[in-house]
Specification:
The chain is mainly beta. It has a domain of 30 residues. It is built from six helices and 41 strands.
Amino acid sequence: MPDFSDKSLSRRALLSASPAAVGFVAGAQAQTPAPGNDLGARTYNIRDFGARGDGKTLDTAALQAAIDACNRDHGGTVLVPAGTFVIGTVELKSYVTLHLASGATLLGSADGKQYHAVDAIPLRGDSTLEDGNWALIFAVKAENFSVEGPGTIDGQGKQFLSPQRGVPPPSGIGGAQRPYHLLFHQCTNFSVRSLFLKDCAFHSIRIIQSSYVQLDAIRIFNRVNHNNDGFHFISATHVAMSNCIVECQDDACALFGSCQYITVNNCQFSTRWSVFRFGGGTVRNIAVSNCLIWDTFGCPIKIRAGQGPLIENLSFFNIEMRNVTGPISICLGPPNRGQVQLGTLASADSAPTTGIARNISFRGIHATVVAPFQQPDVPFTTNYNPGEVKSCIGLSAVGGAVIENVSFDDVHITFPGGGTAEDGALRDVPKVVGEYYAAGVFPAYALYARSVRGLTLNNVRFQAASQELRPAIVFDHVEDAAVNALSVSADTRAESVARFIDSRDVLVTAARVTAPGPEFLRVEGASSTGIVVDGGDLRKAAKTFSTGAGAAESSVKVRG
């Protein structure tokens, strides 16, 4: 053993000493790891597996080989270096980090033959899964993996768009065979971050029955094909999404099935259809905060459910909306697609449902509502439903469904106006509400609530930018409601500022009419009772209230 106290000891002698002894010497040179000691920490450059990256050669096999080797070696990083790598369907596996360098692009092949269905993802037995199991990159029952940038994944989605009905798309495949950017099924503990995902053929990121997911700093631009969703979740749990920017053609953040324990924070969205789209299953414990929404039509926050859902404990906080239609809609009951005409109430009642939506809060919501327009970067014409033009906030439970404990706090919405006296005179509203309502007539310009229990409005301001002859709010069979510090604009040619139909136990305090208008409140229906108007500034209203259609004068009390 060398004498380490001898300062004249040569470097050669020092390095010939045993590794254990050298480890105790300050400043000793690090030893080369023994073979196998770096398993799980290696980098697998796909060029070393034969990838060309020239934008022409098909590099699917090389990328798959690198992923397989990384997985076989207990994980590590698969590196996509600078270049454009054309690929078809690739499977991502456990313990693999797929890293795209800043100059790297994974380019989805324009040849449909380079893709295939993922047979492990079922399409039958669950209607929410029936819209495709094809993908550019997929993982099934994988864990502890990630896809990260700052590179780009380009799906060339326009190649999967038919130029006209009956004509195959350039890729040769379309419909449910269109590939997603990323498709994950029954996976656990994974992340997608710092990526640019563009021009997908279908949904950009689809996550099915997976849990413990982190999505961060992802930019999605997806407006080249129909059904171009941004994020699409089906029965996903424990998902954290943050710092994402999504510009898409269809639902920007769809949550179907039983989605639970999901947060969305500091994100931006623009889409032709909805942003937060809920439907079916048991949905609970969802928190959305600090988001910007612009140029979005078809309702930014849309909760739709048919028979038997449970939707509870949802929070939407600090959301700015500009140029949107129908900012908020909750509708439980029969489907609202199709030609639903005025007076067809019996058919809707024949489809009973036991759906429940409860404990839902909206706080710090500021919106500017506009008529929908063609988004210039969508390469095909999109149609608009009549109801999109005149809808704002709609809450509707029909066929035995229940909506309860819904609150609006610090909500300010500017509406373009344009409602006619005939619109405002509508009493028998079809048992649907939302942008799919074919007749396109809404009795209130700001808020229509039907069959709701436990409704709270606090510090809410509705303002019409032009002539609007509908009431600002309509309560239809609403029970146990509190309206505090409501400010509304009015028009002297309208029938009333607010209308309550067969509603009970409603307290209105500190209301304010901001422009000369008609009577403040019209109460109708023999079931109306326990309505109190307490204080406020109603000087600009022609009178405080009136009753009709069987409502008793005693159903309303005015205090202060």
